[in-house]
Design brief:
Helix content: 10-25%
Number of helices: 2
Radius of gyration: 11 Å
Largest sheet: 3 strands, antiparallel
Distance between the termini: 9 Å
Mean pLDDT: 87
Number of strands: 3
Strand order of the largest sheet: 1-2-3
Strand content: 15-25%
Shape: globular
Low-confidence stretches: none
Length: 78
Amino acid sequence: MPKSIHKYTNGEVTIVWKPDVCIHSTLCWKGLKEVFNPKLRPWIEPAGSTTEKIIEQISKCPSGALTYYMNNDEMPEQ
């Protein structure tokens, strides 16, 4: 089970990030640097791009460190 879970929202979608599971942050940074930039703190800025692009990038996460849910849906089980 992850030690910490961080959530970021742009009002439409909530990004759920488990930093202790994250091992491919370079993939996110190269794929959507307007949202995912590990040099910044916090390194997720959900207002940096469209919801569609955020979901597309999260879907590429190979480690499962990033997930999301739509804010109008019920929150998924953690």
